[in-house]
Amino acid sequence: MPTMAIHIPLAVPLTDEASPPSALSEKEQTLYDIVFEHFSAVDYTLPNVDQEKAALMVDEQFWLSYECLLRYLRATKWDTNEAIKRLEDTLKWRRDFGIYDTITPQHVEPEATTGKEFLFGYDTRGRPALYLCPSKQNTEESPRQVHYTVWMLERAIDLMGPGVETLALMIDYADKAKNPSISTARTVLNILQTHYPERLGLALIAHLPWLLRAFFKIMMPFIDPITRLKMVFNPVITENAWSADINNASRVFEPGQLVRDGWNGSQPFTYSQAVYWEALVNLCGERRSRMVAAWHRIGGRVGTKEWEVKVAVRDETVNLQVGTENVLAENGQLQS
Predict the structure, then answer these.
(1) Alpha helical stretches, state H, the chain
(2) What is the CA 144 to chain-centroid distance, rounded?
(3) pLDDT in tens, 254-303
(4) What is the structure's pLDDT at 160?
(5) What count of Cα atoms within 13 Å lies in the side-chain half-sphere of residue 186?
(6) Crossing angle between the packed helical segments 80-97 and 66-75, to the nearest 10 degrees
(7) Structural contact between residues 31 and 78, judged by C-beta atoms closer than 8 angstroms
(8) For the chain, does the N or the C end have fewer beta carbons within 10 angstroms?
(9) How far is CA 171 from CA 20, 205, 228, 325, in A?
């Protein structure tokens, strides 16, 4: 029998193999405390913002997690003043860009009709895979295209499990794909490097024709050196799915977490807007609601560990599944 096609994203793996954040050195802890105390002060307000809007919203307090503060500290080489400045710049950018209001599923859905970007599966480190298919571009360049890319990145973050802070970017240039303009590419790159530091774990760029290599040569000077090291062009795809990562040492994806078309996985995923879009919106919306609820139970404050929030959601999900299985088993016994 032919394999049935899959049209929905995969849920976050319920693995307990992840490790909590490593302990900080004494110096790192001191620098972290400076940034934490700055944002957790009772009277803290965003600088250069209208007084009635200067207080942090609940969503912003949730965003300012322990791991978030550390990502910005590492990105600024532990310069506390620069980390604080960049964090405040991002807090303002998220408001101005419309993360919390303008960029809704309804706003960006017209960009999603062809499946030019979709989330599906997780690599062996639990990183959600965000697929980009340039050949399926369906709209003219506009701010909404950039909004859509950022919206998808935010959804990838929603689907990061305990101990996961990065994503796997999968770009497939098959089928005569074209690049966006250099202007649009630089805009997106600037957003990613400025407001999403240390969020890229791996970038696999497949089926890149030689004609498009010039585009990447132009863009490379604008990409920071650390990010460049995470980019793999025309990676080897074997019968064993992914048997090599950047260092050609270990499997990047298990076949069951990888799409078949173009990537040699075992999942017969086919993008269907009518099915996928609602499933993704619901999956991410429910997971985020549960994370926010767990965050409130833990204390609901700046500096809460994403690890604790995500573990709470994972354990809640496992317990719910076990409870459901027990009920079904009991019903089966009653019927017998």
Answers:
(1) 26-40, 58-63, 66-75, 80-97, 105-108, 143-158, 182-195, 210-219, 225-229, 273-298, 306-335
(2) 19
(3) 999 999 998 989 999 999 999 999 999 999 999 999 999 999 999 999 99
(4) 97
(5) 9
(6) 110
(7) yes
(8) N
(9) 30, 5, 15, 39
Asked whether 201 and 157 are in contact (CB, 8 A), the reply is no
DSSP string, 309-322: HHHHHHHHHHHHHH
DSSP letters for 154-218: HHHHHT--TT---EEEEEE-TTT--PPPHHHHHHHHHHHHHHSTT-EEEEEEES--HHHHHHHHH
Provide the residue type at 205 as one letter: I
How far out from the chain centre does Cα 31 lie? Answer: 27
Q: Which amino acid is at 114?
A: T
Single out the residue of 272, 55, 312 nearest to residue 162, CA to CA.
312
Cα dihedral 259, 261, 263, 266, rounded to 10, equals: 50
Closest by alpha carbon to 126, among 289, 265, 23, 10?
10
The structure tokens listed for 211 are 């004609």
End-to-end CA distance of the chain: 32
Q: Give the integer Cα–Cα distance in Å for 66 and 275.
A: 36
Cα–chain center distance at 128: 7
Alpha carbon of residue 279 to chain centroid: 17
Classified as helix, coil or strand, 250 is coil
Higher pLDDT, 132 or 17: 132
Judging by beta carbons within 10 Å of its beta carbon (0-12, 13-18, 19+), is residue 276 exposed, middle or buried?
buried
Q: How far apart are CA 45 and CA 100, in angstroms?
A: 18
Interatomic CA distance for residues 336 and 329, integer angstroms: 11
* pLDDT tier, 231 (very low <50, low <70, confident <90, very high otherwise): confident
- Two tokens at 316? 């809640």
* Contact between 170 and 204 (Cβ < 8 Å): yes
pLDDT digits (tens, 9 = 90+) for 168-197: 999 998 887 677 777 888 899 999 999 999
* Paired tokens of 264: 């040699």
The tokens for 315 are 């354990």
